[in-house]
Design a protein that fits this description.
Elements (H helix, E strand, L loop, with lengths): L4 E5 L17 E5 L2 H7 L1 H12 L6 E4 L2 E3 L5 H8 L7 E3 L17 E4 L3 H4 L2 H8 L5 E6 L3 E6 L15 H10 L16 H7 L5
Parallel strand pairs: 4-5
Antiparallel strand pairs: 1-2, 3-6, 6-8, 7-8
């Protein structure tokens, strides 16, 4: 597949000089073109992601519609999707290690492992809180779960009144574990990006 991108970043053997990078973790980043979803269908993508994740010792992970941009161009990219498509995730063009063991937002497929799962009270507590329409929880081996929102990823087309209620419900549950940007290259994070990160909590 020509448009498949695979990017892996491992931890540096030498401590980095930036305090905000002290929680870096190893990251595997896979990107498929939208045409792959359209041609194979969401069931195939769901099964493929679950098969890959089963072999990985993850803290968290996700599958979603993504608009890719470098960190330097995120604000400009944001203008392409805000306020019309809140379901589209704004992400880096490659693997980023700064999220640590936190959760990078709410998505169509949400993979949760430790320590996040423990902070949320474990599988049974999470299952009780997720007894909501449009949310499904699938338990995985090694104290991990997959939470899926609906049968396919949704862009949240505002004009079509796609309210993304499952996203908002899950965001409230995950709020204590969500990653919060602290800086960008040593500078304050633009307010527009901070608001976008919390769009499902407003």
């Amino acid at each position: 597949m020509d448009d498949l991108l695979v990017d892996y970043r491992g931890l540096s053997p030498v401590p980095l000089p930036w305090p905000e990078r002290k929680d870096d973790v190893c990251v595997l980043y896979l990107r498929l073109p939208t045409e792959y979803l359209e041609e194979r269908g969401p069931e195939h993508v769901h099964a493929l992601a679950l098969e890959l994740a089963a072999e990985l010792p993850f803290s968290s992970g996700y599958v979603d519609f993504v608009l890719c941009a470098s960190l330097l161009h995120e604000v400009a990219a944001l203008e392409l999707i805000r306020p019309r498509y809140p379901g589209v995730h704004l992400a880096s063009s490659g693997a980023t290690m700064y999220v640590g063991t936190r959760v990078e937002g709410v998505h169509w497929m949400n993979f949760l492992g430790q320590p996040v799962l423990g902070e949320l009270g474990g599988v049974s507590a999470l299952r009780e809180r997720l007894a909501l329409p449009g949310l499904s929880l699938e338990e995985m081996s090694g104290e991990r779960v997959l939470i899926t929102l609906g049968v396919r990823p949704e862009v949240g087309e505002v004009e079509a009144d796609q309210r993304l209620a499952p996203h908002r419900a899950l965001a409230r549950i995950l709020e204590p574990c969500l990653y919060q940007r602290k800086s960008m290259f040593g500078r304050p994070v633009p307010e527009a990006l901070l608001r976008w990160d919390r769009r499902f909590l407003e």
